[in-house]
């Protein structure tokens, strides 16, 4: 079985930064400074409307600057829409004879649940086995950050990170595990404050070989008590 045969083909990976393309995403990516300022004004108006709808007074002192603060914060929270994998990697792939597992674990991620627009935060663990090439070690956290700085669900985020690394590096295999806490479960609904959601994506030799998969899980200590 070839390495590529085990890759999970997915339409969510493309390299112009638009994992889920829409007219609005393209406009944001290409807009001028004036258009960016106009976008911020529209967002400020929307936040003011939300404040009014929940029964608040946007004109009171404590909320006067809130629409602008929130609009700017939301642009930061979703800055991954303005990034792409090729620019992040920036040619930092090196031909090396290393063929053993490479693991970067406990990478902090911060994202927004696309269902409720509230945060989920956690750790991502990434492993890969090179196929005569390695990637600059700092690029793995940056790839994870790019995809997390978008409206997400954890399951898709896990696959996006794994597929992107697989596509740019073409290794023998890639493994990604995310452990996170979702504020939509803590603040509303079931209100389970101590729950952790764990998702994984195994590609190539990690998918085919139980021993390789178990070595990775042991190294990241995902089954710790």
Describe what you observe in this structure:
The chain folds into two domains: 140 residues, 2-Layer Sandwich (GTP Cyclohydrolase I, domain 2), CATH 3.30.1130; 59 residues, GTP Cyclohydrolase I, Chain A, domain 1 (Orthogonal Bundle). Helix 2 crosses helix 3 and helix 5 packs antiparallel against helix 6. The chain is α+β, with helices and mostly antiparallel strands and 225 residues long. A five-stranded mixed sheet has the order 5-2-3-6-7, sandwiched between helices. The chain is 40% helix and 22% strand. It contains nine helices and seven strands; from the N terminus they run H-H-H-H-E-E-E-E-H-E-H-E-H-E-H-H. InterPro entries: GTP-CH-I_C/QueF, GTP-CH-I_N, GTP_CycHdrlase_I, GTP_CycHdrlase_I_CS, GTP_CycHdrlase_I_dom. GO terms for molecular function: GTP binding; GTP cyclohydrolase I activity; zinc ion binding.
């Amino acid at each position: 079985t070839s390495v590529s045969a085990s890759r999970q083909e997915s339409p969510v990976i493309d390299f112009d930064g638009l994992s889920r393309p829409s007219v609005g995403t393209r406009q944001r990516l290409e807009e001028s400074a004036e258009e960016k300022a106009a976008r911020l004004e529209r967002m400020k108006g929307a936040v003011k409307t939300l404040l009014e709808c929940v029964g608040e007074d946007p004109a009171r002192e404590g909320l006067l600057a809130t629409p602008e603060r929130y609009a700017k914060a939301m642009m930061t929270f979703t800055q991954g829409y303005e990034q792409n994998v090729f620019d992040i990697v920036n040619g930092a792939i090196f031909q090396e004879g290393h063929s053993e597992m490479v693991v970067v674990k406990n990478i902090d991620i911060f994202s927004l649940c696309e269902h409720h627009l509230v945060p989920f935060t956690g750790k991502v663990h990434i492993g890969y086995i090179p196929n005569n090439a390695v990637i600059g070690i700092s690029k793995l956290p940056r790839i994870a950050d790019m995809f997390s700085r978008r409206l997400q669900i954890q399951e898709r985020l896990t696959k996006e990170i794994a597929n992107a690394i697989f596509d740019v590096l073409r290794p023998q295999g890639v493994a990604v595990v995310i452990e996170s806490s979702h504020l939509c479960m803590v603040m509303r609904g079931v209100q389970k404050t101590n729950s952790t959601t764990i998702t994984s994506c195994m590609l190539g030799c990690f998918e085919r070989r139980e021993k390789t998969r178990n070595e990775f899980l042991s190294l990241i200590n995902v089954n710790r008590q």
